[in-house]
Design a protein that fits this description.
39% of the residues lie in helices and 7% in strands. By secondary structure, the chain is of the alpha/beta class. α2 packs parallel to α6 and α3 crosses α13.
């Protein structure tokens, strides 16, 4: 039985590799056109390598006080600047605006609602994955958002998970390929991705107390593989999850953040918490956590001062701040960045307005194509599908379009 399953897995892997286009004539033309556009837009912007950006970040950190450093690694929930999460300004650093979500900018006017990631994955088209990321990145940039909180690349292990639609499915190879192209597209617009949720956040039920027990091989080959592909794509940042991994909270899990992400795979950006998923000060920092969102919590100035120079070294603390600033400089966000022109609020009724900056461009055409290409219709040729019209079977048609309108 195991041999059969292994054979099927190999066949699926090879089939996916063959079916994924990525090199079609139309795809090449689209990529060339978009690359030329990005080149024109970046002419006045100096993009840096990871190494050069790190050097610039370290130099800036050396000029800061402890309080200023804390400001850069902690969210400010009292002055949100119309963003889901905010890092306040320090000296010449203007701060960061974080925004969801998985289908484009969430709770904002004049933006596109793109097809879900799970639907986008079913197009089996690398070019469309890139184009969707590129279009989403353009909209986040146009609204002045520094950090796109996504993509979500958890493995949909629980079929009835309420957020499975946010991710690209349950196959690690497919998810890895899709997130790679998505990251390339988003960050070609100089917008940072914040890939989530690191790692094994496979259910919403009891997500703050659930313990995901995973052996090392399974961790690397399934759950961590899309995150590893994200590092290879140049991801600016990651969001650690609420849950525990092998008995340790993900946001203070050294094995995950420092060992696998940084030492094994060379990740150079920052790792922030999911909302309130921090449980300690020095333990979290020493394990590889860089930022607490949406508020300081355990990374407050008071808490940092209690451990700084003792169980938390000055070098580790300074590196946390540099980790945040490095992708900021790498993507040239310190140059010609638009002001924030969107609002977030607990008021979901739409009563809160924002300046009229329409960033949708022609993205409705792309959204329509993804929606069409991701739809699979089956024809029951020679009655190969076990559908007997006389057996009393029922077919469910779901979604908003299933409602008959007059």
């Amino acid at each position: 039985m195991r041999r059969v399953l292994l054979l099927l897995s190999v066949v699926l892997f090879l089939t996916i590799s063959i079916l994924l286009p990525g090199n079609s004539v139309d795809g090449q033309a689209i990529r060339k056109a978009r690359a030329e556009r990005h080149t024109r837009e970046a002419e006045a912007v100096q993009l840096l390598s990871w190494a050069a950006a790190r050097q610039k970040a370290v130099a800036f950190v050396s000029t800061l006080t402890t309080a200023q450093k804390v400001t850069i690694i902690t969210g400010n929930s009292t002055t949100p600047r119309n963003c889901a999460g905010t890092i306040s300004p320090v000296k010449t650093f203007p701060g960061l605006c974080f925004a969801d979500g998985p289908m484009g900018i969430r709770i904002a006017h004049n933006v596109t609602a793109f097809p879900t990631a799970i639907h986008t994955a079913t197009t089996w088209d690398r070019d469309l994955w890139y184009q969707r990321g590129d279009a989403m990145g353009a909209e986040f940039f146009g609204k002045g958002v520094n950090v796109f909180m996504g993509p979500n690349i958890n493995m949909a292990r629980v079929p009835h998970g309420g957020r499975n639609w946010e991710g690209f499915g349950a196959d690690p190879y497919l998810v890895g390929e899709a997130v790679y192209q998505t990251i390339k597209g988003v960050q070609d617009n100089r917008v940072m991705v914040n890939v989530k949720h690191l790692v094994a956040n496979e259910q919403e039920t009891s997500r703050s107390s659930a313990n995901s027990v995973i052996d090392d091989r399974t961790m690397h080959e399934i759950y961590m593989w899309p995150f590893i592909k994200s590092v290879q794509a140049g991801a600016a940042s990651f969001m650690c999850a609420f849950n525990l991994v092998n008995g340790t909270y993900a946001c203070e899990n050294k094995r995950i953040m420092n060992d696998i992400m940084r030492k094994e795979n060379g990740f150079q950006g920052f790792i922030c918490t999911d909302w309130g998923a921090i449980h300690s000060t020095d333990t979290s920092a020493n394990a590889g956590l860089d930022m607490s969102l949406p508020s300081p919590s355990f990374f407050s100035l008071t808490n940092i001062n209690k451990v700084l120079g003792g169980t938390l070294s000055q070098a580790t603390f300074d590196k946390m701040v540099a980790n945040v600033l490095t992708p900021y400089y790498m993507l040239g966000q310190d140059q010609n960045w638009p002001r924030v022109t969107m609002r977030y609020s607990g008021d979901y009724s739409g009563a809160v307005t924002s300046p009229f900056v329409d960033v949708t461009a022609d993205h409705d055409i792309l959204a329509r194509k993804i929606a069409a290409d991701g739809t699979v219709l089956l024809r029951n040729v020679n009655k190969q599908l076990p559908l007997n019209p006389n057996a009393g079977l029922k077919i469910a048609v779901l979604g908003t379009d299933s409602v008959q309108r007059s």
